[in-house]
Amino acid sequence: MIERILFGGYTKKDGKGVYTAELNTTTSQVSVPVPYISSIDGPTYLAKSDKGILYVVTKKGEKGGISAFSLTGKQPELLNDSLSIGSSPAYVSVDNARDLVFSANYHTGYICVDRILPDGGLSRSDSVLQEGKGPRPEQEASHPHFADLTPDGRLVTVNLGTDTVTTYQINEDNKLSNPVAFHTDPGFGPRHIVFHPSLPVAYLVGELSSKVSVLQYSAKEGSFSVKQTVSTIPSDWTAHNGAAAVRISNDGKFLYVSNRGHNSIISYQVDAGGNLTDNGFTSTFGDFPRDFAIDPTGNFLLAVNQNSDTGTLYLRDSSNGHLTPAQINIPVPEGVCVLF
């Protein structure tokens, strides 16, 4: 079986933009990634709609935003851009049911909503400025790092700068309303969140604290409360680390988090109530693993190391969650996003 992969990344050094490769699930090997969309600056996060449209973080001159590309032809076709003054966003996601695209801008503090046009292009529908700061030097201002859907169809945003997780209702006119804020411990530095596939539980990663909090989620209120908090690094690790991506297996039995600094992926067993037990560390065989993804079969996990320009493919044992390296040093220039 062949699975297609897209890599997003920086274009500050040798990166050419969006790359593509194939995973052969029979041989457990990834082909050498090749440039796929080179006409774009800094495509650091990607999201694909059910209609075959790729939405890509982009920077164009003094503006940043999202570019829409149709993937239905032989070559990607730029449909349009949705841009605003300032740096590019850190995250993009798609609401297929409502034909919306959400983005979170770490640098400007804005959460943006774009309506998907009939051809797949974008038109700005709403933008909300999140304000505030936290106690750490990295929290000198508001820094939204995530904007995606809750299981019940709200928008949930994660703000590293203000130590908050905020849910919004999405109105019929595609506007955000009725914010409900959850506050982490000061300095937690929340980055990303993922929901359990069947339990009313979410897992919030703190980049600055190198911790994961297990949160009880109330769909009635759109609110969170803490059930458990655990570390993503060994107790004797004293050098710098920043927790990054978080993923959960389709069966909800195992959670994974990448560590930039410790250069590892930690796995956790998830019990019947959603709480976590440390399940061991695996090296990423490179430097600064910002993102990773589990493939559609659930049998593989693919990580990219930003600073060493490499990717690592693992076999994933669905019975115990363990990762076994299958291929290292896959050349991924400035890779920071993995999309199957």
Textual characterization of the structure:
The chain is mainly β and 340 residues long. The chain has a single domain, classed as 7 Propeller (Methylamine Dehydrogenase, Chain H). It contains no helices and 29 strands. The strands form 7 sheets. Strands 1, 2, 3, 4 and 29 form a 5-stranded antiparallel beta sheet that branches. A 4-stranded antiparallel beta sheet has the order 5-6-7-8, with no helix packed on it. The protein has a 4-stranded antiparallel beta sheet with strand order 9-10-11-12, with no helix packed on it. Strand 27 and strand 28 (323-331) form a beta hairpin. The protein is globular. The chain starts with a strand and ends with a strand.
Question: Concise description?
Answer:
With 340 residues, the chain is mainly β. It has no helices and 29 strands. It has one domain (37-325): YVTN repeat-like/Quinoprotein amine dehydrogenase (Methylamine Dehydrogenase, Chain H, 7 Propeller).
- Assigned CATH superfamily: YVTN repeat-like/Quinoprotein amine dehydrogenase
CATH architecture: 7 Propeller
Strand content: over 45%
State the secondary-structure class. mainly beta
Please work out how many helical segments DSSP would assign.
0
Which bin fits the share of residues in helices? under 10%
Which descriptor suits the 3D outline?
globular
Largest sheet: 5 strands, antiparallel
Multimerization state: single chain
Biased composition (Basic and acidic residues): 133-146
Organism: Lacticaseibacillus paracasei
Region (Disordered): 124-148
Family: Belongs to the cycloisomerase 2 family.
